[in-house]
From TrEMBL:
Its EC number is 3.1.3.25. Mg(2+) binds at residues 152, 169, 171-172, 303. The keyword Zinc-finger does not apply. PROSITE patterns: IMP_1, IMP_2. Keywords: Hydrolase, Magnesium, Metal-binding. This is Inositol-1-monophosphatase. Pathway: Polyol metabolism; myo-inositol biosynthesis; myo-inositol from D-glucose 6-phosphate: step 2/2. Its cofactor is Mg(2+). Belongs to the inositol monophosphatase superfamily. It comes from Riccia fluitans. GO terms for molecular function: inositol monophosphate phosphatase activity; metal ion binding.
Length: 375
């Protein structure tokens, strides 16, 4: 079924619960000439689960806060349990081709002069972000013309009745890319009813004059791989022996301030907390076992959809920062090697609960209107 066509390039409706600065950052990212003929559909900001209360669900105004029991969380997985009608092989083929195209666009642009634009005071976008997204979209559309797509730069397009949703961050870590500072990548995931089935992240490593890439791929239940070799999270279970990574978004709000306090606290009690600037890549570092955990508030689905599956398939654990069941439309994420997860939550969950009780908005966001999901 074809979806509503909006005449503008911009996301036609942003989130009911989103702040004006959130929505303004989605506007006018790249010229409409770059994305000429897309069907645009809108987002649902708040996904109130209308039917009853699930595990420990609490309602707070427009927000739904799901507090899960430890047993439920134990068995909870972010990855999908089936691929439904589309064979996994086909999804992976598309994913691989799309990530190669994105990689080629970004690789062709490193060490070259950039055209930088601003979405916000410090939130950059380059022409490479848009070009990479277009190259990826061409592949996804060729394979699956009827799937729904959520791209960071172009927004929502495709068939909103589809249960498959492609989440694309064509260039994660744009600020690093713009400065030729290593740690940026191309992140793509395909979800079935809101749960990731397959994912890839291409990480750019090295630096000026010696760029290279490594590619992470995972499928639900099929393990996680880096450049074709299976990867696994670390087994460190002591905070004082651990190295962590976190991130700080462009919105300098209470969640941002709360994470600065967490940054200080964990820097004091661990081997250190890195801040690299590309969330998808940071999560892959957890999957690779070179850091024990990553967390951040207010990431978007395209930042997280691939990374969370890669971590889970590498044997790690994924929750929200209050410890609840995670889905890609949530506004906080904690991924870890699993064995250290509860120790991290002892410090991370209380300030997150405080944000919640202070009324900070943790409702789901960037969920395309009408998209049927289990989460
Ligand atoms: C950003 C990066 C960064 C994170 C920000 C994201 P972008 O993505 O992942 O690490 O801290 O919250 O928005 O804008 O470079 O694609
Ligand atoms: Ca990103
Ligand atoms: Ca991006």
């Amino acid at each position: 079924m074809a979806v509503t066509v909006s005449s503008t390039l911009n996301f036609s409706c942003v989130l009911a619960s989103q702040t004006s600065s959130d929505s303004s950052r989605n506007l006018g990212r790249i010229s409409s000439a770059a994305f000429p003929a897309w069907n645009r559909v809108s987002f649902v900001g708040v996904n109130l689960k209308s039917a009853g209360t699930s595990l420990g669900e609490r309602r707070n105004g427009t927000k739904v806060i799901r507090a899960s029991t430890p047993q439920a969380l134990e068995s909870y997985r972010v990855g999908a349990t089936s691929t439904e009608n589309v064979p996994l092989k086909e999804l992976l083929q598309c994913l691989e081709e799309a990530s190669v195209k994105g990689r080629e666009v970004v690789m062709a642009a490193v060490d070259k002069p950039r055209s930088v634009d601003y979405k916000g005071a410090t939130d950059l976008v380059t022409d490479t972000d848009g070009r990479s997204e277009l190259a990826i979209l061409e592949v996804v559309r060729k394979y699956f013309p009827n799937h729904l797509i959520l791209g960071e730069e172009g927004g929502v397009s495709g068939d909103e009745s589809s249960e498959y949703l492609w989440c694309i961050d064509p260039l994660d870590g744009t600020t690093n890319f713009a400065h030729s500072y290593p740690s940026f990548g191309v992140s793509i995931a395909v979800l079935l009813r809101g749960k990731p089935i397959a994912a890839s992240v291409v990480e750019f490593v090295g630096g000026p004059f010696c760029w290279d890439t490594r590619t992470y791929i995972a499928s639900a239940g099929g393990g996680a791989f880096c450049n074709g070799r299976q990867i696994h999270v670390s087994n460190k279970d002591q905070v004082e022996r651990s190295l962590f990574v976190t991130g700080f978004g462009y919105e300098h709000d209470e969640a941002w301030a709360t994470n600065l306090a967490l940054f200080k606290e964990f820097t004091d009690v661990s081997r250190g907390v890195r801040r690299l600037g590309a969330a998808a890549v940071d999560m892959c570092h957890v999957a690779l076992g070179i850091v024990e955990a990553f967390w951040e508030y207010r990431l978007k689905p395209w930042d997280m959809a691939a990374g969370v599956l890669i971590v889970e398939e590498a044997g790690g654990k994924v929750t929200r920062m209050d410890g609840g069941e995670f889905c890609v439309f949530d506004r906080s994420v904690l991924v870890s090697n699993g064995v250290i997860h509860d120790k991290l939550l002892e410090r991370i969950a209380p300030p997150t609960e405080k944000l919640i009780s202070d009324g900070f908005d943790f409702s789901q966001w960037y969920k395309p209107t009408g998209y049927k999901s289990e989460v």
